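Review box. Two proteins, two foldings.
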Amino acid sequence: MRLDPPEPDRALENLDQAAKELELIGSEVELARCEFETGRAYLLLGDADAAERRARAGLERLDEAATLDLCNGQLLLGDALSVRGAVEEAHAAYRWAADMLGMMSAGRESAAVWRALGDRLRAHGDVEAAAEAYERALSEAGIRATAAPALQNQTQGAGASQA
């Protein structure tokens, strides 16, 4: 899945084998992650219905303690819904993920999910929310704003913050 170009057919073969083994020795979180990766493979193959089924199946395996995994599942669900043309439902899934991520502590994994969320919000034309997601991703990765506070105040007063 992470090759350039991705090989979703080969990934599905590997994920199918992994799912069989995880059924025997894996946790519900690991099984959910396998569902999500399988859904992403189906999405790359153009099967949004299968991707949505896998997203929902993975989400059903998780409890509220697996917040980051729930957010990843909601991103996949949003992607599948978006491809199917259910833009409002997709946006709701993305916003759910954003709201949950907003309550989490900082870390590299949550930074990656914030980045993914920003990409999806931007693709849906929600530029303001995407910029906020990218800002959170940078912040959670430990990269802070570099402009001096006085400079930020000057640019905001000149209308640059709305540009």
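Next protein.
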Amino acid sequence: MLSDKKWLLLLLAALGGVIVFSTLAPKGWPVRLGLHWLVEHFLAFFTLTVLACLAFPRPMVVAAVLLPLAVGLEAAQALTPDRTADLATALIAAAAVASGALLADGLFAVRKRRGKA
């Protein structure tokens, strides 16, 4: 039976794969949630960051890895024939990564502080 950490890593890899596929696939292929695309990007990268912080409990290192990845994926859309790179979307993805990492860092600090009390 798989441990909790392995399930978390599997979920993290699956979500990362869905994000990469949704970013680089032809325009009609990805399934949309019906929300504004900026909200979808924020939720996807925020969730990815929180899961990554749970799997690797060093939020600032996770953010340092995921921030360029988020912006790079948006820039890679300029290489596809039916999509264009968008600065607002890259900034939303970066804000989602930063928000998720800061939230995780704060929660880890509270948990650590409560453990000492």
